[in-house]
Amino acid sequence: MKMEEIRLGDSVACKVKEDMDAPFTGTVEKKYENSVLLDITDYDQRDKQNVTELNFKIVVNLKAITKNFGGGVEPEPEEADDEEAAE
């Protein structure tokens, strides 16, 4: 998956070997250079303890994202610089 294809708030399906035993779904909260911070929203019951230990948050490499269900939006660019320049 490419970073350009992912927006904040998107719901994505992932599979990671390190922290979770089964595939799971999460919502993109923050984008990094090659990974995203997810809020885990749907998971297999055998991962319940793992999810609890992770506080329902996980950083996932873009390569681990198997599907993007969409639903997110890019934030509006901040106009603070324009307002300061006008003063």
Count of alpha and pi helical runs: 2
* N to C succession of SSEs: EEEHEEH
The main β sheet shows up as: 5 strands, antiparallel
* Strand tally: 5
The global form is elongated
Percentage of residues in helical conformation:
10-25%
Unreliable spans: none
Structural class assignment: alpha+beta
Task: Provide an overview of this structure.
This protein has a five-stranded antiparallel beta sheet, with no helix packed on it. Helix content is about 15%, strand content about 35%. It is elongated and about 45 Å long. The chain is α+β, with helices and mostly antiparallel strands and about 90 residues long. The longest helix is centred in the last third of the chain and has 7 residues, at about 80-85.
Nutshell version of this structure?
By secondary structure, the protein is of the alpha+beta class. The protein contains two helices and five strands.
What layout of secondary structure does this protein have?
Layout: E1 11-14, E2 24-31, E3 35-42, H1 48-53, E4 57-61, E5 65-70, H2 80-86
Structural descriptors:
87 residues; five-stranded antiparallel β-sheet; alpha+beta
